[in-house]
Amino acid sequence: MNEVCAKSGGDLVDPLVAEVARLGGLAEAQIADCVDAVTRRDVPLAQALIGRDRKLDQLQADIERRAIDLIATRQLSGRQLRRAVAALKIASNLERCGDLARNIAKRTLALSENEPLTPLTRSIDRMGRLVASRLKDVLDAYTAGELDKAAQVWSRDTEVDEHYNSLFRELLTYMMGDPRTITPGAHLLFIAKNLERIGDHATNIAEIIHFEVTGETDMGDRPKWDALMEKMPAAAKPEN
Amino acid sequence: MNEVCAKSGGDLVDPLVAEVARLGGLAEAQIADCVDAVTRRDVPLAQALIGRDRKLDQLQADIERRAIDLIATRQLSGRQLRRAVAALKIASNLERCGDLARNIAKRTLALSENEPLTPLTRSIDRMGRLVASRLKDVLDAYTAGELDKAAQVWSRDTEVDEHYNSLFRELLTYMMGDPRTITPGAHLLFIAKNLERIGDHATNIAEIIHFEVTGETDMGDRPKWDALMEKMPAAAKPEN
């Protein structure tokens, strides 16, 4: 019975994968919008995206329910099982990307009450675009099932970290130079950290794609946080 | 066959639940240690707990594998299925608590290079103990299956937020008063935020226990972030 089920259910997981792709599209849009909102001080955009976050939460809960149902009630083949588990885990990462975008939008509301810190928002914009492109690449890799593309996102993880570290130093320098920038600077610190965490989720998704396709969880070595930290002056270490 | 499986497999999920409880114990210890490390500036303790985090990651991965295997290969009853799904999700929350403790420990290493900010570390200590007690309570509720105790943790979520908001204001005030405190202050901001997020995970776990026992995902209303924010002066809004 196992084999019959496995064969006849060859595309059982496809609708689930399509829903994850849809959630991915929504998360991409939220991230693009939150970066625009913070750089343009666009309060209505920030409010709109905060309102839309609920939709991502609901879609993720729905995907989770459907994935568990599929795993529990169908005799899935090994690959199908990995696809369903991957869908479940990627959806969870995307939902958290949505939360981080919402939190950036909330800080945009607070920032709009202060004077703009233009050079800093430009750095945030650059980091935001980098992170958004990482998420786009990894979602392309997911829908196309391209392992190479996923591995590329994974191996370039340190670029986002380097952006974050440089932004962290830049922000502290500003805050030290002018105490009036301390409150907005603190918000920008958290915004930068949230963007870095979105980059981490893109890396997680790359690892999940690797697991889905190969069945293995280990992707080998890549440049690590510790190695990166050695390059930094002690006082400016942002930690994680 | 379904019914026979359901009956004979009455305690199929028990070993999984025991492993989650074990992971919970490890996470509790990591959180207690990271609070001690930061408040006592204890570098060896911080390094030891950073090293131990790997064990939590491995245990979580193992729980995930076993939970999926159980769901995919056994005919679980509705309650058993919910127990297995809850184990999977609680383990994921605990693993992230471990990550947050590790990150606090890493910042402790950076902080040890600066002058101590004693009154602030005292506030961090208080918040750390509050958050640790929330996690302890919710893990007690999990192993005892006590819905009331879980609901209590869930309904007191805003206490942690209030601690965080007050600490955020206190930190900014310090940083504005003395630019030399800006770098350690920034680390303490992130430490406070990480503690708040550990509190959020305790709340998530309370919601998962509610789902496991009742099969429902909605716990009704509780005091929300927005309501809390109305109480704060605009410039000091910490956002999330």
Protein model, in words:
Two copies of one chain form a homodimer. With 240 residues, chain A is mainly α. Chain A has one domain (2-236): Phosphate transport system protein phou homolog 2, domain 2 (Methane Monooxygenase Hydroxylase, Chain G, domain 1, Up-down Bundle). Chain A contains nine helices and no strands. The longest helix of chain A is centred in the middle third of the chain and has 34 residues, at 78-111. Chains A, B: Plays a role in the regulation of phosphate uptake. Chains A, B: Keywords: Cytoplasm, Phosphate transport, Transport. Chains A, B: Belongs to the PhoU family. Chains A, B: InterPro entries: PhoU, PhoU-like_sf, PhoU_dom.
**Greatest chain-chain interface?**
A-B, 34 and 34 residues
The radius of gyration over CA of chain A amounts to 20 Å
The average pLDDT of chain A is 87
State the helix count of chain A: 9
CATH topology of chain A: Methane Monooxygenase Hydroxylase, Chain G, domain 1
Oligomeric composition of the shown chains: homodimer
- What is the beta-strand fraction of chain A? under 5%
Q: Helical proportion of chain A?
A: over 70%
In total, how many beta strands of chain A?
A: 0
User: How many domains in all of chain A?
Assistant: 1
Order of helices and strands of chain A: HHHHHHHHH
Classification by helices and strands of chain A:
mainly alpha
- CATH top-level class of chain A: Mainly Alpha
Alpha carbon gap, first and last residue of chain A: 50 Å
CATH architecture designation of chain A: Up-down Bundle
- Low-confidence runs of chain A: 1-9, 222-240
